[in-house]
Amino acid sequence: MVDPTSDLGEDIDEADAPTCANCGDPIVQSPTHRVVTWVEDGRVQHRHFCSDDCRDAFAE
User: Rounded to whole angstroms, how far apart are CA atoms 48 and 45?
Assistant: First the structure.
């Protein structure tokens, strides 16, 4: 897994890239990439989304 704070557009292979939590597409060099972060039980959690539309459509 790639560090979510890294520059994801730099030298990231598609196999190592994060995937969108909604559609499952790998996120490589995407200017619309969004990361949602929250704290749960004292641990930082996060989800990657390829776009605002996928973030808005995501249902837990």
Answer: 11
Q: Are 2 and 14 in contact (CB under 8 A)?
A: no
Contacts of 33 (CB under 8 A, 6+ apart): 8, 27, 48, 49, 50
* Torsion (CA) 13, 14, 18, 19 in degrees, nearest 10: 180
Per-residue pLDDT tens over the stretch 3-59: 665 555 566 778 888 999 999 999 988 889 999 999 999 999 999 999 999 999 997
Q: Does residue 60 contact residue 46 with C-beta atoms inside 8 Å?
A: no
For position 35, what pLDDT does the model report?
93
Is residue 46 within 8 A of residue 32, CB to CB? The reply is no
